[in-house]
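Exercise 7. Given the components listed, write out the predicted structure of the assembled complex. Treat all entries as one system.
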Amino acid sequence: MELLAFGNTGWGDELFYATLMTLAVSITAMIIGFFFALIFTPLKLSKHKSLNLIGNFYTTVVRGVPELLIIYLLFFGGSGAIMYVASIFGYNQYIEINAFITGAFSIGIISGAYSTEVFRGAIQSIDKGQFEASKTLGIKKYVQFYKIILPQMLRLALPNLSNVWQITLKDTSLISVTGLVEIMRQSYIAAGSTRDPLFFYSFAAVLYLLLTFFSMKIINKLEMRYSRGF
Amino acid sequence: MDLELMTNSFPKLLSATMVTLKLLSVSLIIGLFIGLFFAILRMNKNLFINKFAYGYSYIFRGTPLLVQIFIIYFGLGQIEYLRSTFLWVVLKEPYWCAIIAFSLNTGAYTSEILRSAFQTIKPGFIEAGKSLGLPRKFIFYKIQIPIAIKQSLPAYGNEIILMLKGTSLASTVTLMDLTGVAKYIISTTFKPVEVFIVAGGIYLFMTFVIHNFIKYLEKKFSYQ
Amino acid sequence: MNKLKKFGLGLIVSLFLSFTANAGSIKIGTEGAYPPWNSKDASGNLIGFEVELANALCEIMKHNCTIVEQDWDGMIPALTSKKFDAIMAGMSITDERKKTINFSQGYADEVASLAVMKGSSLENLDTPEGINLSIGGSEVTKALKTLTGALAGKTVCVQTATIHQNFLDSGDVGKVKVRTYKTQDEVNLDLTSGRCDAALAAAVSFTDYAEKSGKAVVLTGPTFSGGAFGNGVGVGIRKGDSKLLNDFNAAIDKARDDGTISKLAIKWFGFDASM
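Answer.
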């Protein structure tokens, strides 16, 4: 227990902050993932061949390549790409992106691919009659999407989104390459420093379990609320 | 972009792919047995057995694979008592540590997939078997299991792909799989982007093949 | 409304990107897992010989420095992709690395050594105390031959992307089974667990580990220098960044002359490793 003491002698406070960091990165990544999903879901459902191709390319590549590789690629190649784009607009200074954003963005891209698949499935299971009904009522296409499709889609997607959340939460363990001190990296440091890997990695497992357990409780509550009236 | 490096590293990465495929197939086979075993335990009416099986799958699905492989490799390796037992013969080798971690992980997911597949089997099938006077074991092995396999194919296909990606973590315990060799090449050329793009392409190709193979099986197994 | 949107956009942009404001400020990358060169204490602060030396050098150069952590295997790629401006991470100056980055003059030197667990059959090898691969000669050839025989079929563990890995890969000691790890901590763990028959690293990292862990890790064979082991440890700097390179060289001269490097070396290594 000495190992988990708070303050300068133990790793308790460090691991506590690391847990908050894991939570913060996961939530941010999930939100970034939603934005990606909102862009790519319509593309995937589009009848336009080239748009469809872009949508499929995103989900296939991101879900088909190990997360570790995607994170490495974004970490080493990402800032180069951003600076290249900036140089087109005439900005030639070095642009620094902090570890949190790099980490959250990498995981967000991965999370987004899974969310896209969930959204697509949800939209496809919405009754086709509703599309036609809104068409005959002369509702504009984007109004139709935001006011009719989206609310229903979110309800249908919620159970599967909890899977995406779990994937996202666990994937954050891979972003230690970006230098962000989350649960896994802090345990790694503590294990190295104290030469007690068994204790610290087991403790990390417990922390992840607690995060999964409590977040699932919250998600289940949400699900019950949104399925009211059905 | 260093195209020369990309073409030069391709053959090396390709031969490392064999290690990845070996890790994947061995883990999947062991994991399938573990999954089946725990799926059966989950359907047991004894509350203790049931909870035990649920606990196993909850723990392995609720924690990152990276943590699991680190506990098994670095964690267990530190227990001096363990090092004097026969278990050390297995745990001494990074290869077997990876196989154990991967098998237990995929076993947890497989048990969930199989369990829900068993539960969706219409009771009519089992009753039909019973009324024909077929033995309980026969019904289980010849009716329930084949239907469950068919039901679980799409989800299991996803699991295979997740596991393929999971094997990339073998490189964290010194194994020279596809990711391990990619990292090795980077350690002397210092060009991660080029090498990881090639490695990523190989992973993507494998995903593509697995995906289509499962689709083919699904078609083959469908009733219509 | 438009203003609000612009403000929101600005906020998002500034959240995502923080522009390097101070031109006189430099970032130094270190690993934080290679004691006594660089490591972390229980509060998560970076400590070690190079952390203190970096601060001393920055004071001389009158630069505003921040020391950032970077995993060893991504150290050089992170420098070239401008995540930081200099490396001070126990990195030896080698020809292979010089193809990608520049090095300042060396500030400290370390000899490499094999380590085994006490009682290993590899203890007490019949070799000279130290060999310099750049000088060569019959003594070196004989020592390498002894090592080749002793290590045949053995598993030797090293940290990835190090001079120690390069040496084992070069075939100078025959075909050993090389196993590479992300950090030296992991190498030490597996040496004590018995997964490695021997390990190769800077001699000080083994003696430091043996002292702190109380584990029976002992050095064996000759100490190595020269050849694949490079020419001391220097500051790694991006190619084309010649001003920073000159600044570091001048600062190292000054810190050597006024005894700062020696003082820090004795504090962290227990002997004067300065060069």
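Discussion: Chain A has a mean pLDDT of 87. Strands of chain A lie at 95-96.
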